[in-house]
TrEMBL record:
A molecular function GO annotation: protein serine/threonine kinase activity
Protein name per UniProt: Anti-sigma regulatory factor (Ser/Thr protein kinase)
One Pfam family linked to the record: HATPase_c_2
InterPro entries named in the record: Anti-sigma-factor_SerPK (IPR050267), HATPase_C_sf (IPR036890), HATPase_dom (IPR003594)
Organism: Planomonospora venezuelensis
Keywords assigned: Kinase, Serine/threonine-protein kinase, Transferase
Length: 166
């Protein structure tokens, strides 16, 4: 995806559309969309683009969970949830992610940093079975998910062969 604020709206819409198509409950869609929005917004605000000049957003839905990941060119500081003062205009993004996601963390591979999160969908439909001929998953943009460091004592989004999306 382009390393631009407009990518947040595009990623939100694409993720929402995919999760609706895959039969995920609306409340879980809202949570997953907010999580990807916060991760992508943080990357755009605090990190550098990937070597390609873009940013990568990926997701998949399997076994009652939606896994999302945002990969960028890294930042001077490590992503971490904090407590912003009430008067602050920002600083709540990863706190929101921490609240909505079951697990989240950070991986590093060379110059690439990936922040990932897993949100439970508790869906009565399919739960990891094929929908429309495939298990749900997408890459939104170019780049690399990477692997390596796990942050916050959680497990990273599993590596997956996700199809190219945007």
């Amino acid at each position: 995806m382009p390393y631009a604020p407009s990518s947040v709206a595009v990623a939100r819409q694409c993720l929402s559309s995919d999760l609706q198509e895959w039969g995920v409950y609306e409340s879980a869609i809202d949570d997953a969309v907010l999580v990807v929005s916060e991760l992508l917004s943080n990357a755009l605000r605090h990190a550098h683009p990937l070597p390609s000049g873009q940013i990568k957003v990926a997701w998949r839905w399997t076994d009652g969970h939606v896994e999302v990941a945002v990969s960028d060119g890294g930042a001077a500081t490590e992503p971490r949830a904090g407590r912003a003062p009430l008067s602050s205009l920002g600083g709540r993004g990863l706190g929101i992610v921490e609240y909505l996601a079951d697990r989240w963390g950070v991986r590093h591979e060379g110059e690439i940093t990936t922040v990932w999160a897993i949100v439970t969908t508790l869906n009565h439909k399919a739960n990891g079975q094929e929908l429309g001929g495939r298990i749900g998953g997408r890459y939104a943009g170019n780049g690399h998910l990477g692997n390596g460091h796990q942050g916050n004592g959680h497990r990273p989004v599993a590596e997956a062969a996700l199809p190219e999306h945007i």
